[in-house]
Sequence to fold (402 residues):
Amino acid sequence: MDHQHASAPGPSDGTAAPLDTPLTADLLRGALDLESTGHGLLPHRLPAWARAQNTDGQLAMAQAQPSGVRLVFRTRATVIELDTLRTKMAYVGAPPRPDGVYDLLVDGRLAAQAGVTGGNVRTVDMSTGSVETRPGPVGTVRFGPLPDRPKDVEIWLPYNELTELVALRTDAPVEPVPHGGRRVWLHHGSSVSHGSDAAGPSTTWPALAASLGGVDLVNLGFGGSALLDPFVARAMRDTPADLVSVKIGINLVNHDLMRLRAFTPAVHGFLDTLRDGHPTAPLLVVSSVLCPIHEDTPGPTAPDFSTLGEGRLRFRAAGDPAERAAGKLTLGVIRDELARIVKQRAAEDPNLHYLDGRELYGEADFTELPLPDQLHPDAASHLRIGARFAERAFGANGPFAL
Fold:
């Protein structure tokens, strides 16, 4: 990867990008809906009808952060400029969130990374739930010089910033890339699937696993919001896909959302809905990666402000292990029940499979690469999780093998 190919906009240097290409759906992958705004197009990862059934601000924000969404086109352009209006998140009392990163892939290989300036800042007070937005200007991300030859270009949008697409400029014509024969993998999960602290949008664990598996990703990983919502299941039901996976566990514990009595039928209902639209597709149920604070202690999860003086925010489990007897969920309880449900259903559904998330990140990994905030894997862990998922799912004996 060559970082010097990424640059901020500057005065004309003879490498201007004079050709405007309209931003249309055939240039985008990974979004289920495109909303026209006063500035341009805002990709959504849930359709409008599903968003209308949601009343939670966290999910509304997460599904509009374009994890896995990328511009894909063929061009011989040597300079590419993309105007966007970002909305960056900030949290009162917490360290500043890192800027979003745009990954440029040329013929499938990461060639450059860049960021964008300006944009809006949405500040959340976790103690009160209040939200304040400060507006800002449109910015430009610029890539160049690039090889002067026909090439397939992908611009992966930041997974952690709302990104309104305003304009695309190049110094050579652009054309859409046909979808071709690659299988489509549809995945749903929590902030770990959304991206948490990955180094860039093409190296979140699902993006890496998709690259290793040679498939096209539709990532419905929603930070804080993998909660077995029926409208998410229906959105997945209606999305064309060859391979389907759902990662269940940590957010249900984080929110202390339901007891075991509600959890079991909710899982069955979610899987039933997926099967309505994908009756024979390989369907993989994945439990949470290791998270020691919640392995045997229920939620809710609470912020631990004791390390803010060191510039770090951590999380702690605020539940009582004794409450498991009353049906409170822990990661251990959820894993046992998911394994039981999949085994029961697989007797009549041979394309249904289960993967224990601790095979992706377990005790030895936590010792070597601990969760920095006790909840989210870091960039190195994303690479490890992605490689292991690819091996277990797309490998010779995996449920997603050709």
About this structure: The CA atoms of residues 54 and 60 lie 7 Å apart. Residues 260-277 form the longest helix (18 residues). The radius of gyration is 21 Å.
